[in-house]
Amino acid sequence: MVASISVPGQAHWSSKAAFVLAAVGSAVGLGNLWRFPSEAGANGGGAFVLIYILCVALIGAPLLLAETLIGRHGQRSTVGSAKLLARQSNASSGWAALAVIGMIANYLILTFYSVVAGWVLYFIWTSGADVARTVAAGQPFAGAYADLTIDQVRQQMPDLFADPVKMSIAHFIFAAATTFVVARGVKGGIEVAATWLMPAFFVLLLGITVYAGITGDFAAAVAFLFTPDFERALQPQVLNSALGQAFFSLSLGGGAMVAYGAYASRDTNLGQTSGLISAADTSVAIIAGLAIFPIVFSVGLTPDAGPTLMFQTLPAAFHSMPAGALVAFAFFVLALFAALTSSVSLLEISTAYLVERFKMSRTLAAGLLGGGFFLIGMVSVLSFNVWADHRPLALVPGFTNANWFDVFDGVTGRILLPLSGLITAVFIGWIADRKLVDEETGLKSGPLLPLWRFLVAWLCPIAVFLILLFGLFPQLIS
Ligand code: PHE
What we know:
Number of domains: 1
Helix content: over 70%
Number of helices: 19
Radius of gyration: 22 Å
CATH superfamily: Amino acid/polyamine transporter I
Strand content: under 5%
Distance between the termini: 51 Å
Number of strands: 0
CATH topology: Amino acid/polyamine transporter I
CATH class: Mainly Alpha
Shape: globular
Bound molecules: phenylalanine
C-alpha cells in the first residue's frame, strides 16, 4: 500500500466539477467543430460516425482513464508522474520517455492549432464588421456578407491564406491569449477560462443547432450522419481516420489529460469522470455535425469540402440564410471559446514540466514556451503563401505532397499521438503495478475493472499499432 502522494505547492482544481469542466474544455475544441465535420464529410458520413463512436468507447475512453490516473497518482508534470509510477512499479524510468514524446507532440500541435484558431479570429473580425454593417443599415437579420457575391464570400479564405501578415497577426493574438491564461495558473487562469467559456459555448452551440434545425435541411443532415454504409465503414482509411480523430478530439496521446489529472483531488472517481468527459466530447461533435450539415445541405453545397468546410463552405451557406450575419458571428465566437480552452491544455503540459524541472516561475515558463510556439507556428503560416511550394518530407511515403502545415498535422496526429498512446496502453496494461493502478481507477467492483483492463492491455495496443502502421505505410491499405 502506497501512501497517497501529495507534492508541496502542487495546484489543484477547486472542485470535481471544475476538473470535469476543464477536461471537457480541453477535449472540446477545433477538433469537434472543424476537424470532426470535415473528416466525417470526407469519409462518407454515417460510416465514419459509427466507427468513430466505437473508437471512442473502446479505445478513447479507456485510454482517457489511463492518462488521468497517471497524473492523479503522480501529482506531478506528465514526465514526473510517469517516472514516479515506473519507479514504484520497479520498471525502468525510461518509460517516462513516453511522456516526453507526448509533450513534444502536443507542443507541435499547438504551433498549428494556434494558426487555425487565428483563422477563427479573422472570421470573427470580418463577420463582426458585417454584423455592425447590417445593424447600421437597419437590417440586423440579413444574411452573412450580404454586400458580397457568393464567390467573394468563398474567396475570403484563399485571400487570407495569401496574406501572411494578417495570418501572423491573428496567430499572434491567439498565442498571446493562450500564454496569458496559462501564465495565470491552474486555478486563476485555466479553471476560470473553462468555467466561463464552456457554459457560454454550450448555450451558443444549442442555439445554433436549433437555428439549423429550423432553417436548414435537418433531415438530410441526420440521414448523412446516421446512415452507415457498412462496406465503407470497414475500409482501412475510414478506420484510420476515425481512430486518429478520436485521439485528437479526446486530447489523448500527448499527456494533456495526464496534466489535468495531476490537479484532480484524491476523491475524484476517475472511472466516472473519464466516461463523462468522453460522452460530453462525443455529444458535442455530433451536435456540431447537426448544426453544420443542415446549413450546408440547405443551400445545396456538398459535405466533403474537407478542412475548408468551416471557413469557406459555412460562410457561403450563411450568406443566404435568414439572420446569417448574426449566426455566422456567433458561430465563430463559439469556435474561439472552444479553441482557447483546448490550447491552454496543450501549453500546460510543457509549462508544468519546465516549472517542475528547472524551478522556473510559471510566468517565465509560459512566456518562453508561448514565444517559441508562436515562432514555430510561423512556419505553418508561411506554408500557405511564401513557402507554398516547399515539400519538406517529399521523400517520405504519405507525405510526398505535404506542405509544412500538413507535415506538422500529419506527423503529430498520425505518428506521435498514436505512438505515445500505444506506449501508454502498454505501460498501464502490462508494466505498471496492478494494485496501484486499479486503486486509482475508481472501478471497484463489478465487471468494469476487468473489462477496462482488457481494453487497455489488449485492444488499445493492437488497434493503435494498426493505425500507426497504416498511418506510416498508407500503401499497405491502398
Ligand atoms: N482535443 C482538442 C480539440 O478537439 C485538441 C487537443 C489535442 C487538445 C490534444 C489537447 C491535446 O480541439
